[in-house]
Amino acid sequence: MERVIRSNRRSSVGDKKELFHVIHKVPAGDTPYVRAKHLQLVEKDHDSAIVWFWKAINCGDRMDSALKDMAVIMKQQGRAEEAIEAIRSFRHLCSKQAQESLDNLLIDLYKKCGMFEDQIELLKQKLRMIYLGEAFNGKTTKTARSHGKKFQVSIKQETARVLANLGWAYMQQNCFAAAELVYRKAQTIQPDANKACNLGVCLIRQGNLHDARTILSDVVNHRFLDGEESKAVSRAIELLREIESQPSISPMDIGLNIEEAINDWSPLRSKRLPIFEEISTYRDQIAC
């Protein structure tokens, strides 16, 4: 009888531990990575968590997850430049499957640090991988996470997302002609109101107020049905007011230097993507 009671107690303790790991999403064990996750998720001690993530990286304990999790915490703490350096220094020790998620994290970090040249080059690299069928580790879809929920992302959705990010990065460099073409391409793949507003901004900055007015009116008239539509409508209304306050300017009156706005694909210049062929020939198109 005593043995049965002891056995039941041990089983009860084991069940509680298991439940603890499930509730807090903390892996079981006593390794540096497990300690880091416990500090991060349970004790909310992010500084100590980073210390233990470093220990996990140095001893090769769940390298992929340790590097990504540490970089995310650093980003949250305003230490984005440290996170960038960590990923650049240790990503070669991570698996091939982890590289894509590390790229996505780097893109966000570059954006946060205002490192737009690096962001653009990495986005170009991602587009090239999609074009060559190397994205998603060769699969047509991948599982992504957002706010704790899993969902499927298709190659089509990923392409539109990467193009939208590329367009935004060009906008930060005031390369509005290049951004326009990238946004137009993204809209043909997966149109939405937010990208339409950004396209409208590109057109306004180039003086093409007629086309900008048409696109922004589509947003106001709810031609795009997506989760961000209500915010985009308010923004489109503000941009339309801006249009009404200024005279029209021909794009030909603006000094467009597309060759400086878009660099050739490097190092494989002879194998550029169609979108960049379109951009590089934009000057000829507007001259017709």
Helix content: 55-70%
Broad structural category: mainly alpha
How would you state the average pLDDT, rounded? 82
Radius of gyration: 24 Å
Task: Quote the beta fraction.
Answer: under 5%
Which spans have pLDDT < 50 for at least 5 consecutive residues? 11-24, 254-271, 281-288
The tally of beta strands, per DSSP, is: 2
Number of helices: 15
Topology as a string of helices (H) and strands (E): HHHHHHHEEHHHHHHHH
Strand order, largest beta sheet: 1-2
Overall 3D form: elongated
Q: Let me know the largest β-sheet.
A: 2 strands, antiparallel
Termini separation (Å)? 94 Å
Structure explained in plain terms:
The protein is mainly alpha-helical and 288 residues long. The protein contains 15 helices and two strands. The protein has a two-stranded antiparallel ribbon with strand order 1-2. The N and C termini lie far apart (94 Å).
